[in-house]
Structure formats: structure tokens, C-alpha cells
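Structure ticket #2291
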Amino acid sequence: MIESLTPKTMAALQGIRGLKKVYFRVAMTTLEEWTNGIGAMGRVIDDNAETLEDVSLSATQTTVGNYFMWTHNPCLLVTRFTIRWLPIDLAHSACMFPNVQRLEAAYEPGSIPNLNTGMT
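Resolution: structure written out below.
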């Protein structure tokens, strides 16, 4: 489990391969920290796309907006995906994790209007 993504932890995770489970908790306050934290999560997920089975993402506070985790490779083995307090694009997540069998999500009341489900 990575409790807080910082520049130091981001650098340490670059290039690690073979992870089956990841749990990231973003504890950032500025927009730049959020953007870098989301980008770091995406890079680690992308680096482990061939082996990941369980992905959990959470934040210490809900922020306005939706976040894409840019990945190039779908994670075909991921069957469990958990999102807590992190508004991300669920339509994009469905492309990243096409074989999810168990989706868990928790949001603060009132944050759902900020959630992009990819539907009109």
C-alpha cells in the first residue's frame, strides 16, 4: 500500500514490474500535486498492466473535477476495482479494466454530480 504519493515515492515506483495488487491513497492539496499524483498512479498501473488483479484508489478529500489516469495498456487481469473519494472518469476506467467483476465506490454526499460516467 502506498499511503501518500510524493515526488520521492513516485520516483521509487518507476520501473517496478510484476505487481498483482496496488492500493494508492492520494493526499495532495494543490492542483499540481493532484495532477502529478494521478499521473504517477497511471504510470505504475500501466507498468504492471500484465500482472495487476486488484486496484484500489482513494483520496484524503474529494476534489472537483474528473481525472483520467492515462494508460496505454488495458489491465485484462483486474477483476476488482475500488475507488474511494476520488472522482475519476468511470467510462475511461471501464476501458482500462474491461474485466472488472467487483466494483466498489464511495463518495461524499453531493460529490456525484462531479462524477463522469461517460453517459449523456
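Closing remark: The first strand starts at residue 21 and ends at 26.
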